[in-house]
Amino acid sequence: MKAARPEARGPVAEQTPLVSVVIPTRGRPELLRETLAAILDQDYAGRLEIVVVHDREEVDPTLAALSRPDRDLVSIPNTRTGGLCGARNSGLLASHGAFVASCDDDDLWHPDKVRLQVERLLGDPALLAVGAGIRLLMGDRGNVDWQARERHVSHERLLGNRVKELHSSTLMMRRAAFDLDQVGLYDEDLPHGYGEDYDWVLRASRVGSIGTVQEILADIRKDVPSWFRDRSLNTAVALEYLLDKHPDLRDRRRGHARILGQIAAARAAAGERGRGARIAGRALSRYPAAPHAWIALAIAGPGIEPRRMLGVARRLGRGLS
């Protein structure tokens, strides 16, 4: 039997703590291996524990062979509720790092992501989580860079804006945050797991500080199929759930209008044009400049192809998600 590797101790371990990386996956083995390659190539001097969670599919035991010194990779099944939130929780509960980073199975980290985020968390003990700037890979339409605007993200800002720098493929969180009563695990009751990262940071920002590394540290693929593409009704139902779960979202005119506009766009894209238009009207009565509501009306009225509007919105920095 191979002897267990002793844990590093002392000042070096304090500056390079074990980081656990949790990656839910389902049905995308080629993209997953590209994601894993970028994580394995991190320039972080400490250990990485990479947990791939197979959701409603067979575990791929061959992935373990990708492990390297200080880069331990394991594959496990989702043992909790089927779907994204259960898979994230399965990986979290099976991991051991003081810091936990989440990543989707089709996104790509820049080599310095882990190192810079660990430095940020170590430098500010009040932070529960940090995100980072992102690059949207849009294929033939060109890439879009979104640097993080602020080093600290308040709860008030999150009520008005989803803050895409706090993306599921950028977040690094203190394990201790998941033990706090008001934060806890990912919500497995969230319909279809849509917006699970936003729900979690909303809860975390009520009890602690959320920050960012402002540099772009992750490439987010928008040029490959998403589980949420062509599932607009799933998006609408999940956003309606979030509005009920977080009533303070309704107290901010702009934030409430944003989510209503997103629901309207999703309903219209799913073919519910009349309902989408009515919800868009509610959004505009709350905040007449709500961009998502106008996008919803464009889809509901002339019947503009939703993916085209989505591409335009992303290029303007106004994604529909």
Can you give keywords for this protein?
321 residues; alpha/beta; Spore Coat Polysaccharide Biosynthesis Protein SpsA, Chain A; 2 domains; 10-stranded mixed β-sheet; 11 helices; 10 strands; globular; disordered N terminus
Note down, in words, how this protein is organized:
Helices cover 38% and strands 18% of the residues. The chain is of the alpha/beta class and 321 residues long. The chain has two domains: 11-221, Spore Coat Polysaccharide Biosynthesis Protein SpsA, Chain A; 232-315, no CATH class. Strands 1, 2, 3, 4, 5, 6, 7, 8, 9 and 10 form a ten-stranded mixed sheet that branches. Helix 8 (253-269) runs antiparallel to helix 9 (273-286) and helix 8 (253-269) runs parallel beside helix 10 (291-300). The protein is globular.
